[in-house]
Amino acid sequence: MTPVSSPALPRAVVDAAVAAEREDSGWTDGEGAELRGPDVVLLVVASGRPAGLGAPAGPGVDVVAERLGAG
Length: 71
What we know:
Elements: H1 11-14, E1 18-22, E2 28-30, E3 33-37, H2 39-46, H3 60-67
Parallel strand pairs: 1-3
Antiparallel strand pairs: 1-2
């Protein structure tokens, strides 16, 4: 199955220099520290909600947390 293309990540996440990898769909976007997790969790984080930062994994979690003021 080929993943459906998704819109680009919001600026708050892209500017954080992370490579987001959605575990459910296999979709990836961005460059930098890896941030991986289920699609819905990365959607919460990408929408700028720091509450979603407890579920993803990878060094990109700290990068995004700092960018969102939650680190």
